[in-house]
């Protein structure tokens, strides 16, 4: 980046680094490359980099321009075009990056909302709340009826007293066996698991609706 930076200013000042007939469009192309590199390497120091560029230009002008045949107006125009293009590009780049951050935040919020609803609500209810419009929810969701419904809740009676007399590793293995079997039954019979609270296991089963 430093090499590109030096080459650009040498070209703006008219100093021969390749040939005196080098096209100025190449210098502007180098300026764009410098902008991209400087923004990528110093994304939060853009104005500091621009200000230092102005200082460097003034320093080189005072020390080098007198030895090169170059009109001051041409020099000023090159500097102005360079700085304006950097500022405009910076604004566009900043807006683009802000939009990317906002999109990522919205997507993360949507996934968190989906996960929370899938835990707190039955799956078919969560899908309607997330993916249907307000009009569709008011039209169909509140009027839905089911032929029959089964609600299941299990608990271990006297577990506290029993666990005080058993080995902890055996208790963990026992609980794992019970609730893994419950999960298997939920998949096998297509029931909707609500949640597991402590030792309690909740699920329900709905007949087809109309």
UniProtKB/TrEMBL annotation:
Ranges for domain Guanylate cyclase: 150-202
Signal peptide residues on this chain, from the entry's feature table: none
Superkingdom of this protein's organism: Eukaryota
In terms of PANTHER family, this protein maps to:
GUANYLATE CYCLASE, GUANYLYL CYCLASE
Q: What is this protein called?
A: Adenylyl/guanylyl cyclase domain-containing protein
Which Gene3D superfamilies does this entry report, sorted A to Z? Nucleotide cyclase
Q: Which residues cross the membrane?
A: 30-60, 72-90
Source species:
Reticulomyxa filosa
Localisation per UniProt entry: Membrane
UniProt keyword Lipid biosynthesis present: no
**Keyword Transmembrane helix belongs to the record:** yes
Any Gene Ontology biological process: receptor guanylyl cyclase signaling pathway
What does UniProt give as GO cellular component? Answer: plasma membrane
* UniProt keyword list: Lyase, Membrane, Nucleotide-binding, Transmembrane, Transmembrane helix
Which GO molecular function annotation, any one, does this entry have? guanylate cyclase activity
């Amino acid at each position: 980046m430093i090499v590109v930076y030096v080459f650009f200013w040498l070209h703006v000042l008219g100093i021969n680094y390749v040939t005196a007939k080098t096209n100025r469009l190449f210098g502007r192309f180098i300026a764009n490359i410098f902008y991209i590199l400087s923004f990528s390497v110093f994304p939060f120091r853009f104005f500091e980099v621009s200000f230092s560029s102005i200082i460097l230009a003034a320093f080189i002008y005072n020390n080098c321009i007198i030895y090169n045949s170059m009109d001051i107006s041409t020099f000023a125009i090159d500097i102005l075009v360079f700085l304006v293009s950097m500022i405009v590009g910076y604004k566009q780049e900043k807006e683009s990056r802000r939009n990317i951050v906002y999109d990522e935040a919205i997507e993360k919020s949507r996934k968190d909302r989906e996960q929370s609803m899938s835990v707190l609500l039955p799956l078919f209810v969560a899908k309607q709340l997330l993916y249907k419009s307000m009009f569709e929810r008011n039209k169909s969701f509140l009027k839905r009826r089911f032929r029959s419904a089964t609600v299941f809740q299990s608990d271990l009676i006297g577990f506290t007293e029993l666990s005080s007399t058993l080995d902890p590793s055996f208790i963990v293995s026992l609980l794992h066996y019970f609730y893994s079997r419950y999960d298997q039954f939920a998949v096998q019979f297509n029931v909707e698991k609500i949640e597991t609270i402590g030792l309690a296991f909740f699920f329900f089963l709905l007949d087809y609706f109309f």
